[in-house]
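Deliverable D2.4 — example input (C-alpha cells):
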C-alpha cells in the first residue's frame, strides 16, 4: 500500500513539502547505521533496538522523547531506520532468521496479519488491560488485532476525510458539507465551473493501492465491505456495484470530475492548486493545505467526515509498535510499547505532528486545549470522529492481494475497458484464490 503518513510539524506548519510528497509514493531517505537516542547502545540487558521508518515523523518524534523513557525505566533505546519501501522485507528477513536484531518493529498494519499469522510478532494482550484498553477510541485496537489477539499497539490511527473549499461553498450558497452521496453529487455539479477551470471533485481511477483504499471506503459507505468477519472476500456485491456506479456517474454523467485515471498525487495536487472543491485525502493534507508556501487554498478550506450512502465512514489504518517474537529483551520491549503509546506521549505526538492518535483521553484534551485555535480543535475532532465511526481493513494475510485485485477492477471500470459486473466477478475470483492460499 502506497500511503505514507508524513506529518512534519504542528497543524498548518509543514517542513519541506517536496519531501512529504515524495514519501507518499516512494520511500523515505535511506538509513544507514542506527540512531542512538540515549547513552547506551545496541541490544542487550537494559537496552532495546527499535526498527523505524527512515526519515519519518515517527523517527523524529520518538528519537526526541526516548531519553525520557530511559530516565524513567533505565532502558536505553537505539533506533535503526529503514526506508519505507524496504521495511516489510527487512523486518521479514529478521523475523525469519530469528536473530532478534530488532526488539521492536514499527508495524504498518497492512502487513501485520502476515507477521502475526507466522508467529513473528509476540502477543501483547497483557500490556493493555482495564482502563488503559478502554481509553482507546472505538475500533482502533481492531487495527492491531489478529484472531482476537493483540500484536501491536497503535500510536496513530487515521482514515481519509473530506476536504472542501469553504469560500467556494459560500459563493455557491451551499450551507454545509455533503453528508450523503446525493448531496455530494449535487454539490460537485454546482461547484464545477469551466470558466475558472474548477472541478467539483476528483474521482480516483489509477491502478494502485490508493484507488483500492478509496474504493474500500466507498463500499463501506454503501453499507457493505470487501470481506466478511473471517476475512473471506465479498467484493462481488450490490454495495460494490453501487460504489462503482457512483464513481462513473460523477465522472461521465455529472462531468464534475476531470477526465482521466487519477491517483493520490493528482487528487491532492489539484486541491492545493485550487482546482478542486472537494477531495477525500489523509489527515496530512491539512498541514500542506494550510501552508501558503505550498498551497493556494490556505485559509479557504475545512474538513468534514466523508459523505455516505448511508454511512459516513472511511476505512481506518494504523501504525504501531510490536514486539519481535525473536527479541532477547522482550520485557524491556513491552515496556517501550506501553510507554510510547501512553496518553502522555501520544498527546505530545499529536501536537508535534498534527497526527490523529487513538486514545480518547488525548482527543478530549485536545478538544479543550485553549492554546489551539477553534479551527485546529475542529480538525482534530473530525479526524477522531471519522476514525471512531469507521472500521478497519480485513485483518487477513491476503490483504495485499485483495488490494491488487480491487485496483485492477476499479481501474478497468473507470477506463471503460470492463463493465462493472465482469470486473467485480474477476476481482472476487482473484481474492478467493488469495484467501484460500494465504488468507485463513
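Example output (designed residues):
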Amino acid at each position: 500500500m502506497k500511503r505514507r503518513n508524513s506529518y512534519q510539524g504542528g497543524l498548518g506548519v509543514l517542513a519541506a513539502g517536496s519531501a512529504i510528497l515524495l514519501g507518499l509514493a516512494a520511500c523515505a531517505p535511506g538509513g544507514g547505521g542506527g540512531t542512538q537516542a540515549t547513552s547506551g547502545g545496541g541490544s542487550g540487558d537494559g537496552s532495546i533496538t527499535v526498527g523505524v521508518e527512515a526519515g519519518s515523523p515517527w523517527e523524529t518524534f520518538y528519537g526526541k522523547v526516548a531519553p525520557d523513557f530511559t530516565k524513567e525505566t533505565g532502558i536505553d533505546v537505539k533506533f535503526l531506520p529503514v526506508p519505507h519501501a524496504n521495511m516489510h522485507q527487512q523486518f521479514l528477513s529478521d523475523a525469519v532468521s530469528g536473530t532478534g536484531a530488532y526488539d521492536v518493529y514499527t508495524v504498518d498494519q497492512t502487513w501485520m496479519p502476515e507477521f502475526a499469522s507466522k508467529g513473528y510478532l509476540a502477543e501483547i494482550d497483557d500490556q493493555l488491560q482495564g482502563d488503559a484498553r478502554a481509553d482507546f477510541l472505538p475500533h482502533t485496537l481492531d487495527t492491531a488485532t489478529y484472531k482476537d489477539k493483540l500484536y501491536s499497539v497503535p500510536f496513530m490511527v487515521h482514515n481519509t476525510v473530506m476536504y472542501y473549499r469553504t469560500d467556494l461553498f459560500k459563493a455557491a450558497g451551499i450551507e454545509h458539507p455533503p453528508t450523503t452521496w446525493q448531496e455530494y453529487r449535487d454539490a460537485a455539479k454546482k461547484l464545477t465551473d469551466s470558466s475558472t477551470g474548477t472541478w467539483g471533485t476528483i474521482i480516483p481511477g489509477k491502478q494502485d493501492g490508493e484507488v483500492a483504499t478509496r474504493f474500500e471506503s466507498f463500499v463501506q459507505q454503501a453499507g457493505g465491505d470487501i470481506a466478511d468477519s473471517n476475512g473471506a472476500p465479498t467484493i462481488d456485491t450490490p454495495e460494490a456495484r453501487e460504489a462503482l456506479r457512483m464513481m462513473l456517474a460523477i465522472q461521465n454523467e455529472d462531468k464534475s470530475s476531470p477526465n482521466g485515471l487519477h491517483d493520490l498525487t493528482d487528487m491532492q495536487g489539484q486541491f492545493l492548486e485550487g482546482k478542486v472543491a472537494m477531495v477525500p485525502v489523509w489527515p496530512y493534507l491539512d498541514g500542506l493545505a494550510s501552508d501558503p508556501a505550498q498551497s493556494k487554498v490556505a485559509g479557504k478550506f475545512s474538513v468534514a467526515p466523508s459523505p455516505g450512502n448511508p454511512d459516513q465512514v472511511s476505512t481506518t489504518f494504523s501504525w504501531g509498535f510490536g514486539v519481535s517474537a525473536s527479541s532477547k529483551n522482550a520485557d524491556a520491549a513491552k515496556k517501550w510499547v506501553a510507554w510510547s503509546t501512553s496518553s502522555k506521549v501520544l498527546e505530545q505526538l499529536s501536537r508535534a505532528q498534527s497526527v490523529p492518535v487513538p486514545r480518547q483521553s488525548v482527543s478530549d484534551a485536545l478538544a479543550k486545549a485553549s492554546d489551539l485555535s477553534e479551527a485546529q480543535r475542529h480538525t482534530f475532532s473530525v479526524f477522531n470522529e471519522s476514525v471512531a465511526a469507521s472500521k478497519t481493513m480485513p485483518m487477513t494475510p491476503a490483504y495485499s492481494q485483495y488490494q491488487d485485485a480491487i485496483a485492477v477492477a476499479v481501474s478497468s471500470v473507470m477506463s471503460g475497458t470492463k463493465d462493472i459486473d465482469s470486473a467485480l466477478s474477476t476481482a472476487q475470483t482473484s481474492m478467493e484464490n488469495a484467501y484460500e492460499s494465504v488468507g485463513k
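The chain is about 45% helix and 10% strand.
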